[in-house]
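Structure first, sequence second, as always.
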């Protein structure tokens, strides 16, 4: 009987301790922190539509230290997304729109790549500074060919197919 009592007490203590540590941990709104970036190529430019959960994206923007006076969203996108051409030069990107769909936010940026996607590289580091479990999925469509890339914290630029 004593063993059973000790087991019950130890179990209750473990549950109370676990409950306290869960309450102290930062809340996670989504079971997986992820973004989706759709890349298409046409007319000498890559167009990237980035989809992110509004609350997660806002945390990423808040954590980013961009230039003073700049639009915080554009500064964050510029610091978290990178496109390099076939010669290894980073390409300047321009905003091409935004849209809202429920708790999702979509952001469009365009990168001129007159030589096409061949040899170009891409980096998608959205929200890495905020979530250690962040995963950024990229779907690339070039003509009839579709491929996917996956970015996790620590990844550098990857070749576009």
């Amino acid at each position: 009987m004593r063993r059973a009592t000790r087991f019950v007490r130890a179990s209750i203590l473990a549950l109370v301790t676990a409950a306290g540590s869960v309450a102290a941990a930062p809340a996670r709104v989504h079971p997986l922190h992820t973004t989706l970036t759709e890349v298409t190529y046409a007319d000498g430019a890559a167009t990237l539509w980035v989809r992110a959960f509004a609350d997660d994206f806002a945390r990423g923007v808040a954590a980013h230290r961009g230039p003073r006076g700049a639009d915080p969203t554009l500064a964050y996108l510029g610091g978290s997304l990178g496109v390099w051409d076939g010669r290894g030069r980073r390409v300047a990107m321009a905003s091409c729109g935004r849209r809202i769909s429920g708790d999702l936010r979509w952001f469009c940026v365009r990168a001129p790549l007159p030589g096409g996607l061949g040899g170009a590289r891409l980096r998608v580091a959205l929200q890495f500074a905020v979530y250690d479990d962040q995963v950024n999925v990229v779907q690339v469509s070039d003509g009839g060919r579709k491929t996917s890339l996956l970015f996790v914290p620590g990844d550098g630029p990857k070749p576009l197919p």
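Margin note: Residues 1-25 have pLDDT under 50 and may be disordered.
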